Amino acid sequence: MTRRIALVVNPTSGKGLGARVAPVVRGRLAAAGLTVDVHATTSAEDVGRISADVIASGADAVALIGGDGTIHLGAQVLARSGMPFGVIPAGTGNDFARGIGVPLNDPAAAADLIVAGNTRAVDLAVAKDEFITTVVAGGFDSLVNKRANAMTWPKGNSRYTLATLAELRTFKPLEYVVTVDDEVIETRAMLVAVGTGPTYGGGLQICAGAEIDDGLLDVTIIQPVSRLTLLQMFPKLSKGTHVGHPMIRALRGRTVRIDSPGITAYADGEPLGALPVDITIAPGALTVYA
């Protein structure tokens, strides 16, 4: 029986990349014999609404063309629905796609994963009544994210690099209380990040070694270091070679609470809300093509 796929397109993601790759993906799916219904979003709210309509319609699967923000919105509806979920990366960071092994710069190859039909169940974090697909960040990294989101230039990962340099000029370590399961840690730190997968910010392996289907949250605490040392860490984060640094503490657990006065948490690259934030794990909550 022919599979029916709802292809939800965010045409503005990646500065228009979503619109450009949509015909390629649709053609690839149709050429493989799938019935493809295309839905273009005009606002953020459309992603969730269309996804809910697709589930009710009896379609066999949903495929989203967009970045981490689009994926985040879709996950709010698709989590725990059991409906297979295809990801066509077309954003700035694309960290969720990276975490599940979807090709980042080849939309046809990403579509081929949907055609193949192989699925896996992956974990989601839960914070402030939202499902989180990548990382919850609070500290230097969330301030960088805020600055990067406000920038119109440059495009891609270079935006995060410039935002990092700008924020570094005035940043000072913050006071945290971090609780991982029953362990309470009071510490000064540059940042605290909690993820189901390893990367955020377009490939920075802040939770290096995290497995997206192990039922655990990975926690990284970067303790106080000089601005120069923090700057030197970022290239290492891209390669994962920061692991073992004496000022980086890594933990795992099923529940995490982060608190630091005056800091806003970011999740999937978007503002989540003021700390404190409680984070739990939803094992196997999302079924993806991978």
What do these coordinates show?
Helices cover 32% and strands 34% of the residues. With 290 residues, the chain is an alpha+beta fold. The chain has two domains: 4-117, Rossmann fold, CATH 3.40.50; 131-282, Tumour Suppressor Smad4 (Sandwich). The strands form three sheets. Strands 6-5-16-13-8-9 form a six-stranded antiparallel beta sheet. A six-stranded antiparallel beta sheet has the order 12-11-10-7-14-15, covered by helices on one side. A hairpin with a 2-residue loop joins strand 5 and strand 6 (130-132). Helix 2 runs parallel beside helix 3 and helix 6 packs across helix 7. The two termini are 21 Å apart. The mean pLDDT is 93.
CATH topology of the largest domain: Tumour Suppressor Smad4
Number of domains: 2
Can you give the helix content as a percent range? 25-40%
Q: Under the CATH scheme, which architecture of the largest domain would be assigned?
A: Sandwich
What descriptors fit this protein?
Diacylglycerol/lipid_kinase, Rossmann fold, 34% strand, ATP-binding, 6-stranded antiparallel sheet, 290 residues, nucleotide-binding, alpha+beta, YegS/Rv2252/BmrU family lipid kinase, Tumour Suppressor Smad4, phospholipid biosynthesis
